[in-house]
Amino acid sequence: MFLYSLLFYIKNVKCIYYIYYSNRSYSRSSKSAFTTLLAIIIVFALIFLFARISNKSGSSSSSFDSKITEYANDQYDIIFEDRQDALLIVISESDTVQAVYGNNAAKILDDYIETMWEKYDDNYNDDLGIQLSCMFNQTLDEIKKDETKPIKPEQSFKKTCYRDDLNWVDTKQNLVSACLEFYECTGGIQPYVLLVKDQTIKNETNVFAKTISSVLKIFIVAFAIIVVTIILFILI
Fold this sequence. Notes:
alpha/beta; 8 helices; elongated; 4-stranded mixed sheet
């Protein structure tokens, strides 16, 4: 319906253009209309750019802790989509740790996430596969001791349960086995460990770069609309 209306409008404008073709002032005004349209699009794009920068700068801290929190939340949505029974642990190059988990997993993890961090710190090892497996196993010991009621699983266990950009995990099977046991004993909480470089986190949470990318997409779409409009104006 919108495309039909646009074509009808272009056809009528073109008819008027042909009727008054000899009138140079109309020819100039027709060109001016396209210039005005382009100017309006540019103005709105710039307003959008400054609004995004202002909102982000006012609502979030520039500290690395806030960046890794933002990064972890974004990665949870990418890795798990709509799952509510998952646990994402992000470990940065500077050994800053951040956890994000779904509402279903929160029935257990709200009570044991601090215990998990304590176990992580207590079991320091150059091989993060060993350190993390000890963390999961000892947290499970506390959960079992308290006879905590398991949740209901949403999906089966996925063996792709870590990504190691830092090459800190030597005994990979230890980590996978610990994640599987954690999944089984909690009734379905799917762990995923993401080891990532600090620079990756900074790049992914760069407000200015992300905003520029968004505005660039707007410009591309706007330019495409203008080009198509001009082509239709000529051909119809």
